[in-house]
Amino acid sequence: MDLYVGYLGIVVLIILIFLGVPITFCMAAVGVGGLIYINGVAGTIQFIPAQLYSFTSNFTFAALPLFLLMGFIAFYADLSKDSYDAARAWLGKIPGGLAVATVYACAIFGAASGSGLAEAAVFSKLAVPEMLKSGYNKRLSLGVVATASGIDALIPPSILMVILGVMTETSVGKLLIAGIMPGILFAVVLAAAISLFCYFKPSYAPKMGTLDTSWKTRMKTLGNIWAVCLLFLIVLGSIYLGWATPDEAAGVGVFGAFLLLLQRRKFSWANLRGAAIDCAKTSAMLFLIIGTTTIFTSFLSVTQVVSTSTQWVMGMNPPFWLLMVLLVVLYLILGCIIEPVSMLVLTLPFVVPLMQSHGANLIWFGVVFVMLACIAGISPPFGLTLFVMKSTLGDAVDLNDILLGALPFLSLQLLLLAVLIMFPAISLWLPNMMLGR
Measured between alpha carbons, how far is 275 from 90 in angstroms, rounded to an integer? Predict the structure, then answer.
């Protein structure tokens, strides 16, 4: 009987999502209601606080707000602007130069930020007006920012990697390091595709005749991004060499970003307060999602939906390639209706046992999932990145223009996803060479 209650809860959850109820409230309502039905009010009241505390108090989760704070302080220190100025000076004269510069600027700033949504907001204000002023096609300009902001999810520090590592009891450090090569590959392939397209369609990206790309300017802008490189080397280098755990490295990263804020004379109580408030809001949202999903997955575990469904799929003994195809399709569908963090914590109890039954490497799977999250970010109708950009740019652009600008890049992301699935070594090369602590 409990099993049927569990499946009924899933149906109710899906109905609530399609009715437009926020996913957090959907999971909380179904999870609490189901647990009360099974365990009674008294048992549920005793169970939920203990379950929430035991999960969210995991010390590794301390890296989440710290990495977020590091990124917001880096933003107030103008590291995003310096990254864009440097990329523009070096790449501005090639076909689609400003768009290509935006891609690499997103990759550079991603090394100091853990949130792709924050990056989408930053470069919507920074790069989109610059491209439009230079005569670039509006949809191309919007699509480039929407797609390139996804690089942040792969380039460490990555919030999704931290959550995935905690939930799968996998090395967070190895997951973070595993995203470096796929992130670089994503940036290179995306930049090459944009430049090639603009070479054959020059009307989409007029050449910049007045842009200063002299060697003097190039060296000056290159000197301005030493801070991003240093921050990246300190944080990721300490993890890679085994000198620090991810949460320790995140703490060092926050201190380093604060020193840069002082060194660049950008410190003010208003900036510090702004970074702290932005961090608190984003952290609260993430932990609310994680907490409510924990309640819902506890309900599924009590009703044995997770174990029964997993055993059923394993009993079918599908070949691994078919299992991966089905999971990719599932995540692409889920990505259209819920945001990546909810998608991650909601499906892992089902997916991880299936991966382990086939002997799949969870570090590699983590990179594959994050790539799927990049795709979900621009997938209609829910694609959260699209709404962040619309909110940032306001009435200056139409939501349909952002969507239609991002859609052509979906095929490129799917191609890259296929490459990461077929060649796990791209993701595992660096983690396999890490030094233990």
Answer: 30
Q: What is the pLDDT at residue 149? A: 86
**pLDDT confidence of residue 212:** 66
Start-to-end CA span in the chain (Å): 48
> Across 113-202, where does the E strand assignment appear?
none
What residue has token string 């994680």?
Answer: 290
Cα–chain center distance at 380: 17
The token pair that represents 90 in the structure block: 């070096």
Residue 91 lies in a domain: yes
Per-residue confidence at 300, pLDDT binned at 50, 70, 90?
A: confident
> Could you list the residue range(s) of the whole structural domain that residue 258 is in?
64-267+319-432
Residue, of 361 and 72, whose pLDDT is higher: 361
Burial of 107 (0-12, 13-18, 19+ CB in 10 A): buried
Q: What is the pLDDT of residues 52-86, one digit of tens each?
A: 777 777 777 778 888 888 878 887 887 777 787 78
Question: Closest by alpha carbon to 101, among 114, 116, 86, 115?
Answer: 86
Number of domains in the chain: 1
CB 334 within 8 A of CB 343: yes
Q: Is 10 part of any domain?
A: no
Tokens standing for residue 119: 């990056």
Q: Which residue has the higher pLDDT, 221 or 361?
A: 361
Q: Considering the domain boundaries, does residue 191 fall inside one?
A: yes
Crossing angle of helices 116-126/97-110, nearest 10°? 140
